[in-house]
Structure formats: structure tokens, C-alpha cells
Amino acid sequence: MQQRPQTVTDIVELSVSAWFYRNRTIAGFDNPARSLYVSIREIVENSLDACEDAGVVPAIEVTLRRVGGSELSDRLTQGPQTFCLTVHDNGTGIPRTAIPKLIGKMLAGTKFTLRQTRGTFGLGGSLALLYGQVTTQRPVEIVTGLKGDPFNTRLVMRLDIETNTPIILEETQIPKDPSSHGTSITFYLEGDWLRSKRKIVEYFAQTSIIVPYASIIFTSPDGTRFEYPRVIDSMPRRPREMKPHPRGIDVETLKNMIANTRSKSIAAFMTSSFQRVGKSTATNFLRAAGIDSTRDPHSLSDKELLKMMQVLASFSGFISPSSESLSPAGVDLLGAGIGRLEPEFTAVTQRAPNVHEGHPFVVETAVAFGGALQPGLRLYRFANRIPLLYDEGSDVSTRVIRELNLRNYGLQQTDPLAFLVHICSTRVPYKTVGKEYIGDVDVVRREIQLGLQWCLRKIGEDVRRHHRVQRRQKRENKLQRYYTFMAHVLSDATGREITTRHLFGE
Amino acid sequence: MSSGETVRSHRDDVLSLIGTVLDTLAETIEDGAYPEIGYYGSSKKNVNYVPGRGYVPIDERPSFLDGRKVESAKTIASLIYGLTRFKEHLEQGMSMSLRDFYYMHKVKHVQEVLKIGDQSETNRLINLCERILRVGGDSMPREEFGVVSSPKGTFYGDVTLTDLSGKRINCSEAGEYGWFISSRPFDVSIHDINIDAAILVEKEAMARNLIELGIPEELRVGVGSLFGQPGRNMRAWIRRLADEEVPILVLVDMSPWSLRIFSTIKANSIELANIRGLATPEAHLLGLTTDDFWSSDGMLAEIKHSLEKMSKSDIKCAQQNRNIPAISQDRILRRENERLLREGRKGELEAFKAFGLPLDELRKTYIRYIRSKAKRLGVKLL
């Protein structure tokens, strides 16, 4: 929007969706390869969220199909192609009336609350559909049905970019089994499979690790079927929606909260609008801020609000934010997830909740060793149950691992080791808008470091024990070999049968 | 008893000893027990230097091969295999070299189990066998169980003997260098000795010169050639001669290395202290001595300009000599070594050629040198 308002006729009002489309690179839609990957990711994550919200273990089926065009194998000359993407989930389904808004309208969704969700804005999914429509000019098809309904609703619709509203082109009802439920979205988009294949396949592999309770099937344009059957039936505890913590707030939000409150006194406002603020905390805080606790919150001036903000940020009397709004995977789930790598040993730990800028976060770490793992170190990073596939070198976890002294644990760089770091937070401290790596925040780095060190200690013990057993076995084998040889030589020399029967048994 | 019979009965003794050891090990394994073998290692703790006797084993700290340990089990397996090889060779009247023994471990099924890397491992094994097979409290030299390696040295002079060939030989009629010293001088029978002393020369060229000039006949002496550091057989032969009361005179370069050569003849070495009959404490250092060059009445003072500067390694050798008991605790050798270090020069047997004399004069010089030096050592020559 760097349009210069030279004349009145130059002024253009952009709709929300038009704005987002023009700035789609923020969300990762910058080239056909990346766009294909991001589209799949956004839709799949919406599906996973839908299932988890419904409390059902997810079963997701993704099919990516090449549409028309010849299949060129030459990487250099091959440009973007058209693909048809279908994502089917077994979530609650969407009520007929909510479909246009939920799917077809930007900035309308269920994620604008203070609890851990995969995305932040509920925007990526809509943007993916929008991207598909713009690049292929084909409409979106949705088939959805609720539990108990005797039919599925099938809608074919187009998004109107300028007005940010959906236009329904077709609507039919398809009879179904009343007990089934779920949503299936099919749309066309431009993409570059050859250049995004590796990331997309990796995305499904890593998602299967962090969401081991989901059954995921992905059929690629090459016809390869990647199947990740469910390995555990329990799901993580659902995050609870929480009131904001006083330390994570800004002036605008504060003003907004005050405008909407029905409390008559500022003290009552404090206790009712923020989490973990009781009467005594509120009293102490207001005394520190120099505000009379009986004041009507609506009467505070901008200047006073600013002062209040500053004290909010520096006041040390607040209890840490509750981690109820978080949904860490938990040791069992993570253990099952990392089990997908088929290692010989695993160690998983969950750190106690901690706080960064008023937002609670929980770090979970796991280390796996041996088995099917390749020699060398590998890092799997997850944030709010999303795999992070880009910018690994800049991530705080990479930094922590680089500084670990593996030899202290009886391990070395060339050992088959996999590290897993999962951070969940109501606001993950991403470093960039691309949301691909976690910044080097002291408190976060510390948690990751302590978590990985704990895991390494345990792995180190396992590996040592394993080596001990191996050594003992090797020693036993060698002894037997030597004595068998001796018995053989002695039999020849003495002319009578000498056996090691009494030494080693039959 | 003829020499051949001695050898045969000796061989039977060794065979029965090896047989006993193998039987004991076989029974131990049959009974389901891990064998354990004790021996005295070659550490300095097990060896004393006694002036007048040389290095003497004191056998204070036994070492053990514990068959429960993997490494020891491997050694015992090698030992058993080695003993069976010795047994077979002895039964056939065959000898083997250290290299032969090494190659016997390259037999496929043996190599697969014992995985011998290089010859030093099998050499150590032979050394171990010497220490384990003991007769009357003494280690058994490897020659006794048929392992003979790099015999060297010759001896010329009027000595009549019978060696393992069974032939009667006079050492002055056996060839241009005389008799090639037997690999097993213990088993040689000496019939007649017509020499007043034996001169053992470090370098073969000097020894040959002495023989060519007819000096053995003239002085009634034997001349032996050590070919550098003497082999075990040579040392044993010198011991045999000394046992026959032949005075032993050693003629070597004037250098720290030659002091070592002489000290090995005189006192044996720490590594082989367990092998008896290798030291000849009666041996005298005939020359070349520092006094020959540097004292005013020295017989070689005239040619001291021929001395060469000691190299770095020569100096290092002399410094290490200070830690060798047989040199540092021997009055004469210590003096020689310190003087070499002080002067920083060394002399060689070839120095006689620096007189530039006609051969007849050279012959007289040799005779004069040997006779007068021997006289000073209390050995009278013709």
C-alpha cells in the first residue's frame, strides 16, 4: 500500500482478502514450490485442529493430483503445473450456515482466543484457497457433514476477493451414514511438485511424529502412498481458553478490555479480566501504580493508562501465567511419536511451564539413539505441534545442540542421534514473520538446554549399559574361540579328545 | 658320551617337559577350569647387576597369565600352539627361525583365531616360552626347543671340536674365517685347545686382517669375529671358551656403542638375564681404549689426529650408557664412557691404517699392540 495519494481518484480501498492476497508472501506463498507446500500444510493443520476440537482421534487423508499437462522430467525446463488437492478429515464437520464464513471469509475463525493453536490467525487455510482460485480460476468444493445428520452438504463456491465474501455456485445434499462426520475440501492450485516434494514428504513424516495419535495418508502426484497409521490412541489434554496475563498485554488491548468491562472499580476489573490476579495482588499492584482501587476503570485517562501499562510490565507481584491454556504433547505421546523413527533408545522429558513476555510456554524434548537412525545428528523442531522445516541453522535448538558436549555423555557427533524439541506457547517466540524458527530467547534456550541434557544423560546411561553388555558378550565369544582353538590343538598334540564342555557347557 | 648323544638326551628332556606342560593344560581345560600360568618377567625388578657376575635374575615378582582374561587366554592359546610346533620340530630334529615361527601363525585357521599382527608378537611369545619352560629354576634358552635365529660370528684358531654336524673340526682349518659358530654352542664338544687366549674382534675386516697376517699362529691365539653386536650363539661360545680357561680379550672400536658390545659379552643383558651361560665376566677389554690415544705413553697417541667427532646419536648413546648398570657400575667402562663424553671424539679399529705403514711393519705393530695390551691385563702371550 505504498500508493501515493496524488489525486482523490487514486485512493483505492482494499478489502481484507485483497490486502492479504497482495501480501501473501508473509504467509509463505512466495513461489509455486513453497506455495504448494504451505497450502497443504495449512489445510492439513486446519483439519487436525478440527478433529482435536471435536475430541476425535484424527484420520486425515490427503491426495495431491497433477491436472493436465505433460509430465516433464526435466527439472530445469519444468515450470509450475496445476494440481488438485483434496484433504479429508473426520472432524466435527461444519454446520451449513457456518461454511461460507469459516471457509470463504478472511479473518473469520475460531482461533482468535488466548490458547494454544497451530496457526495464529486462522488465515492460512483461507489464503491457500484464495491462492488456488487466483492461480487456476477454479472454484472450491466442500463436502461436510455433522454427526447425526442424514446427509453431507456439498458446496461449490468461489471467493470474491474484492468484497471478502464467498459466492456459492452449487449446493447439493448427499445422503450419508448418520454416525459419520467430517469435512473434505477439494481445490485446484498452481504448484511445483518437483521442487517442493522433499519438504512436503518431510512435512508428513514429521507431522506423524508430533501427532502420533493421527492416522495420516498422503498420496503424492507420483502415485506414492505415504501411510502413517496411528500409533497411540490417547490425545493431549485440550487447552483451555484463558483470560490474558497482565504481563503480556499492550495499551490498545488494555483500553479495549476497559471499554468492554462491566466492572465498576479498577480493582474488580483487575481480578475479573486477568488470569491469576486475586484481591491482594490487585490491591498491591494498584498501590504500586498509584491508582485508587475504587476508581471507575472507564475514568482513566490515556496518560494514566500508559503509566499503568509500565507498572504492569515491571510489577513483580504477579503469579506466573497458567499453563492451562497450553496443550503439550506429553511424555507418552512424544515417546510414541519418536518411536516412528524406530530408534533403539529414547528419552523424553517435559519441562515445567515457564513464562516469556507474559505468555506461558512449555518445552518438551526427546533424544533417540541407534536402531534405524542414520549416523550423525538430526534435529526435529516443532512449535505448537507444527513441524518447522526451514531455517534450522538459525534456530535456538541448533544453537543449544552445537554447544552440548556429547562426550560428557559418552556419545559423539557420529553416533546415530535424533533430537526433538517441541515448544508450545500461546505465543511462540518466532524470530521472523515466516514463523520457521525460534529466536534465541534466554529463558527458552535454558529450558531446551536442560531438557536435552536430561535426555542425553538417560541415553548416555542406556548406551553405556548396552556397550557393557556388548563388551561382555564379545569377551565371552572371544574366550570361547580361544578355548575351542586350544582344545583343538591340544587334542591333536596329546592324541586324545579335549573338550571345553566343562568350561562353557555343550 | 658323544656330543650327538648329549644332544639327543637333551632333546628328550625338552620334549618331555613340553609334553608335561601340554598335558597339564589339557587336563585343566578338560576339568572345566581356566588355566593360570606364572612366570618371571624381564622387568628390572626381576634382575640384579652383580659386578663380577653380570646380570642375575632374582625372580622376585612373578607375573601371571590368567586364563579368565581375554588377552591372557589369547596368549595361552598362542603358547599351546607354539609348544606343539616346537614339539613337532624337535621330534623331527628340525630347527626353526623366529621368522619361521611367525609364519606358522599365518596358517589360515590359526590366523583366524590368533590374529597375529607382526613378528614382534611371536617373538614375545618365544621369550615367554623361555620363561615358562624352566629346568632346575633356570629359563630354557629357545635354542633348546629348536628356535634358532640369526646365529652369527666366526672363530679361527687351533681348537678342535665337534659341532651339531657331528664332524670333527679344527677351527684353523675350517675356512678363511675359521669355524662358523654353532647355533647351539652348549651342545658342542671341545676336544682340544691349543691357544693361550681368544681375541674377539668387533669388525670382521680387522679379524680377517689379523688372520691374513698370520697373527693367530704367531701369538698362539684364537681370533673371533663378532660381526657387530654379538649374537646369542657367539656369547655362549665365548662363555664356553672361558669355561675352558681360555683368557678372553675383546678388541672393539673406541666408542659408546662398542662399550655396550663389550658389556653385553661381559655381563649379558637385562632382557636375557634369565638365560644362563651368556655372560663372561672374565672378559677383558683389550682395546681400543681412551688411554691408547690420549695418554702420553698411549700406543696410538701418534695417530690421535685420526679420531672423529662423535655424532649426536653417539653422544646420546654415551649419556644413556650412564644408566646401564653393567657400564656405570664397572670401574673401567665408566671411566671410558665419561672420557669419551668429555673429549667428544671416537676411534675405530681401522685407525691402525692411519700409521701408513708397509704391511710387514703393520703386522709388527698389531703384534706389539696385542702383546703389550694383553700383558697389562695379565695375559701373557708368546
Question: What proportion strand of chain B?
Answer: 15-25%
Strand order in space, largest sheet of chain A: 5-4-3-6-2-1-7-8
Instruction: Please give the CATH architecture of the largest domain in chain A.
Output: 2-Layer Sandwich
Mind telling me the CATH class of the largest domain in chain B? Answer: Alpha Beta
Mean pLDDT of chain B: 90
Q: Might you state the CATH topology name of the largest domain in chain A?
A: Heat Shock Protein 90
Tally of contiguous helical segments of chain A? 13
Number-wise, the strands of chain B total 17
Named CATH architecture of the largest domain in chain B: 3-Layer(aba) Sandwich
Describe the structure.
The complex is a heterodimer of chains A (506) and B (382). Chain A is of the alpha+beta class and 506 residues long. Chain A has helices spanning 16-22, 32-54, 99-104, 124-136, 193-210, 251-260, 266-273, 279-289, 302-314, 331-338, 396-403, 442-494, 501-504; strands at residues 59-66, 81-89, 140-145, 151-160, 165-175, 182-191, 215-219, 225-228, 345-350, 354-356, 359-369, 376-383, 386-388, 416-425. Chain B is of the alpha+beta class and 382 residues long. Chain B has 2 domains: 3-145, Orthogonal Bundle (Arc Repressor Mutant, subunit A); 154-376, Dna Topoisomerase Vi A Subunit, Chain: A, domain 2. Chain B has helices at residues 3-30, 70-91, 98-104, 108-114, 119-132, 204-212, 215-219, 232-243, 256-267, 290-294, 312-321, 325-328, 331-343, 359-376, and strands at residues 36-40, 47-50, 54-57, 62-66, 134-135, 138-139, 154-156, 159-162, 168-170, 179-180, 189-193, 197-201, 221-225, 248-251, 284-287, 308-309, 345-346. A 6-stranded mixed β-sheet of chain B has the order 10-7-13-12-14-15, sandwiched between helices. The longest helix of chain B has 28 residues, at 3-30. Chain B is globular. The model of chain B has no long low-confidence stretch (mean pLDDT 90). Chain A binds chain B through residues 475, 478-479, 481-483, 485-487, 489-490, 492-494, 496, 498-503, and chain B through 22-23, 25-26, 29-34, 68, 70, 73-74, 76-77, 80-81, 83-84, 87, 110, 113-114.
